[in-house]
Amino acid sequence: MDAANEIIEKIRREIAALQPATVHENFGHVLSIGDGVAFASGLSQVKLNEKVQFADGSLGLALNLAEDRAGIVVLSDGAKINAGDEVKATGELLSVPAGKALLGRVINGLGEPIDGRGTIGAAAYYPVEKIAPGILPRQSVSQPLQTGIIAIDSMIPIGRGQRELIIGDRATGKTAIAMDAILNQAEINRRGEASGDSSFRPVYSIYVAIGQRQSAVAKNIQLLESHGALPYTIVLSEGASNNPVGQYIAPYAGTAMGEWFMDNGMDALIIYDDLSKHAVAYRQISLILKRPAGRQAYPGDIFYLHSRLLERSARLNQDNGGGSLTALPIVETQEGDISAYIPTNIISITDGQIYLDTDLFNRGVRPAVATGISVSRVGSAAQVKAFKQVAGKIKLDLGQYYELMAFAQFGSELDERTQQQLDRGARIVELFKQPRLTPKSMAMQVFLLWTVQNGFFDKISVGKTREAMDDLERWAKLTQLQLLEDITDKQEIDDTIGERLRRALESWQATQGGDAQMSA
Fold first, then answer.
1. Mean pLDDT in the chain?
2. Same-domain check for residues 140 and 35
3. Residue after which a domain boundary falls, among 65, 93, 121
């Protein structure tokens, strides 16, 4: 009896200590389901972009709010939802995992691993939708982010925290430029880690593949792995065969992961490949949600869709950690029409564009960067002094070359000075031809640009210029390592460096390889 009394007394104490609280939960019921979109009634308290849960455990996102119903896009593939099922508002925004644990992994738009390598231990969870940093937490772009592509780093420079659009027709090498940029960051990271410099700041990359073929994404992952760049990269893929909701969420999820690096005082680079397909996925969702269509059947908020995404890329000031998130969005044009709806929207949002020209690509000028249309509105402020010293005149020479080409094609006689300008421009075009997956260091780019600018290739026939440049690059890597290191350290060409460059090039010309090229 004593034991029974003790139990009864304990129950009484527990009842007396009980503090009942009202728990408010907002439930509703599915009215209809189809094409990955559910309409539900009864969710009177649900908010825009709030995460909801269906009876089978699958998740959805509230995108349409009307007086009597909510339009919900279903996030989970293979969800078993029927009309009449219960649906519950969670009161939470959709979040994705973030942190260094994601580096080297392949994930989907919800941050779930799809590479078969087990779960990911996230350092934090970041909301997919987040308000961009305001003006006060930001600072001016003043640090370079080098792609390793000589035509871009010299004439269309990109700075950390910038948003630079890569635009062009299908199959003109847009993804190739993005891949080269990622590979170059990985190479710089490796060199920086090996140097033991405590002030070195690595750049981590996030590649967001939206609506791409799975085979193309797999090829890019293999490429990153074979070049040792995957450990510094997060690959987020929502393929063409996936739910359009995943394709819609993917760039926001990737940005949230990049914001973790930025908020923790680190630098990140994010590639959106590509936002044309992202806009199409959103249009598809909007039409199913019965939103009114506007220009080119896109919904009226298509500009806001991309502006709220790209505005999240920034460089924060020191009071806010000094981190940065650099965006390279990719947009595909049709027949070179950059005045179409989506291209003009994104051109107006970004800080410049790299335009890839189909005619240049077909003529063998690759990367096919059209210097007349391409521009960087910010990056020159972040460009190192050495580039400014050698690139300014190069851009002028190239512009004059393309202007004079129009006259030269008529076959009229040209004076000696005009012919020299044409020859110099042709050699610059040869210099800017760069095979894929061969990013060049800053010092090597400056070395080659200085060589062209100072006429050391002028006596070489244009047809042999590319061969001579490759020979010079190999020779410099073997014999001029100290000079290249000094250019990297000083980041400018003073009188001493200039004289050493001149002596080195005269020495190269005197070698057997140099003589062979000179006499060609």
1. 91
2. no
3. 93
Amino acid present at 42: G
219 and 356 within one domain: yes
- Write the CB contacts of 507 (distance below 8 Å, at least 6 apart in sequence): 479
- Please give the model's pTM, rounded to 2 decimal places: 0.92
Average of per-residue pLDDT across 67-71: 91
Check residue 109 and give its pLDDT: 94
- Coil/strand/helix, residue 504: helix
The SS3 of residue 53 is strand
Q: Are residues 313 and 360 in the same domain?
A: yes
pLDDT digits (tens, 9 = 90+) for 281-303: 999 999 999 999 888 899 999 99
Assign 467 to helix, strand or coil.
helix
Q: Mean per-residue pLDDT for 410-427?
A: 80
Which helix (H) or strand (E) segment is 258 a member of?
helix 244-263
Residues 77 and 106 grouped into a single domain:
no
pLDDT > 70? residue 344: yes
Which of these three, 383, 405, 431, is where a domain ends?
383
- Do 346 and 477 share a domain, yes or no? no
Residues 241 and 339 in one domain: yes
Domain residue limits at 78 = 27-93
CA–CA distance, 74 with 91 (Å, rounded to integer)? 17
Active site residues: 377
Q: Where are the beta strands (DSSP E) in 35-85?
A: 37-41, 50-54, 59-65, 70-74
Can you give the pLDDT at residue 518? 43
Q: How many domains does the chain have?
A: 3
Q: Taking residues 68-96, what's their average pLDDT?
A: 90
**Three-state DSSP class for 380?**
helix
Rounded Cα distance, 306 and 346, in Å: 7
Judge residue 103's burial from the number of C-beta atoms within 10 Å of its C-beta, 0-12 exposed, 13-18 middle, 19 or more buried: middle
